[in-house]
Input
Amino acid sequence: MTPAGRKRSEDSRRAILTAAAELMGEVGYAALSIEGIATRSGTGKQTIYRWWPSKADVLLEALATKADLHIPLVDERSTDEGSYAADLRAFLAASFALGRKPQVIEVLRALMAEAQINPAFGERFRAGFLQRRRDALGVLVDRASTRGDLPPVPRAGTVADIVFGVIWYRVLATREPVDDSLVDELVSLLGTPRRGSGSRP
Output
């Protein structure tokens, strides 16, 4: 966290995040160091430690920033695609396009592993990335409920579990691709009203 009254230089911040992402791709997580990030970015180690507690946190912000750029942050004011299925398809397509990038996949694997052995970082990872993406998907679900085209099952929380559970299972376990065919399957599974049952009010 930045101390009160001290603002981060945006140029330095971008240089540090870029350096961390580049080095992660070149040397891997185990060999990544604050010293290396400082050297590559042209900043001091103390500057980095003043803003982030660890290399994992630098990567976490780099990942969150990239996700925000590639996957629109959904809120009540964002574009409505006209139906739950269309909203869901747009969200999944953008998420999967980012998730297919090898460098992003390696960062995801490294941060998830770190979150399992470092409880304090795990809390920051869940709040700063995982919950942020769930909340974005939750807006789509709430919008569909208001519009009246949300299938009665699965429940909102289960929708997020299925979407992100599939992504993480493929990233961490099977390493199968997250591709357009998977988008089609998930939209068909989650976005199609069940025959004989109405939408939620």
